[in-house]
Amino acid sequence: MWHNVRLLNAIASVLVALVVLAALAAGGHWLIQRPIFTLKAIQIDGDVSHINGPTLRANAVSRLKGNFFTIDLDATRAAFEAVPWVRHASVRRVWPNQLAITIEEYKPLATWNDGRLVSVDGELFAANLAEAEDEGKLPEFAGPPGSEKDVTARYYDFVKWFAPLNMKPEAVTLSNRYAWGVRLAGGVQLALGRERTPETLATRSRRFVQAYPQVAARWGNQIEYADLRYPNGFAVRAAGMRFLSEEQAKKLAATPVQKRDSRKPAVAQPAARQKRSQ
Q1: In this protein, which residues make up the domain named POTRA (predicted)?
Q2: Which of 97, 171, 240, 254 could cross-link to 183 by cystine, CB 3.0-4.6 Å?
């Protein structure tokens, strides 16, 4: 081997290359550790109406490690996205010693039944309720686990369907049996039942909207509850009104008028019942 000039030259070239690479690595390591590359500033841009400096320092900045070259951008992004109100954060380096963070906040739409908030995109997130309601009380959503996007989508539908009445939904509920309920502004509670077809809820809502002016003319702001699950109409309960069972209604109808106690409050007798479409 020692008499093979070509082989010796190849080995020498490899050794020289290794030495050069080692020198470059050592020089590079020395260079990136220079104080000039120590992070001096973090620029925060984007939607930060609910986020302040102390919150970011306590929850994100204090967790950052490394300098301009060595900091882990994915870990940095995750640290900022762990801050309350932050939906998404994008991170980039700014030469020679800064980071630029662009933040997208959650936009609160409603409260959820477990104490969290629901965003306008139907995403659950944890944040301070008082901050979320600084411009007014939020609607209340409730439903089985994992149904927040469905409830949010239906809320937007209810806003559109009941807009002719100028009555915005204050609460939307999806029961464990997947029956829908809505409380409108003013306190009117509506039972809409299950969504049998894509048009079920729209049809029932439209029927109520069309008939409501006549119902309101009779009962005014006394209406407390409306059951929209009937196939051809709906039942209404108003303050001070109580409904009789069919048996009670028959007994009352059979009682001679002169024998009825005029001192007792009047009661509303419901029309012949129809089987509900749940």
Answers
A1: 37-106
A2: 171
Q: Are 99 and 60 in contact (CB under 8 A)?
A: no
Query: In the beta sheet, which residues pair with residue 124?
Result: 118
Residue whose token pair is 């929850």: 59
Return left, alpha or beta for 107; rule: phi > 0 is left, psi -120 to 50 is alpha, else beta.
beta
Number of residues that make up the chain: 278
How far CA 256 is from CA of 247, 253, 259, 261, in Å, comes to 16, 8, 6, 11
Q: What's the CA gap between 96 and 199, in Å, rounded?
A: 59
**pLDDT tens profile 145-202:** 999 999 999 999 999 999 999 999 999 999 999 999 999 998 999 999 999 999 999 9
| Domain CATH number, residue 126 | 3.40.50.11690
Residue type, 120: V
The pair of three-digit structure tokens given for residue 247, joined into one six-digit string:
């048996």
Residue 68 token pair: 């301009």
**What is the per-residue pLDDT across 53-90, written as a single tens digit (0 to 9) for each?**
777 877 888 788 888 888 899 999 999 999 999 999 99
Is residue 13 within 8 A of residue 19, CB to CB? The reply is: no
Asked whether residue 249 is assigned to any structural domain, the reply reads no
pTM greater than 0.70 (yes/no)? yes
Range of the domain at 28: 5-33
- At residue 118's C-alpha, the angle toward residues 115 and 121, to 5°, is 165
Residues 269 and 245: their CA atoms lie apart, in Å, by 9
CA distance 117 to 170: 15
Name residue 119's beta-bridge partners.
108
Question: How many domains does one find in the chain?
Answer: 3
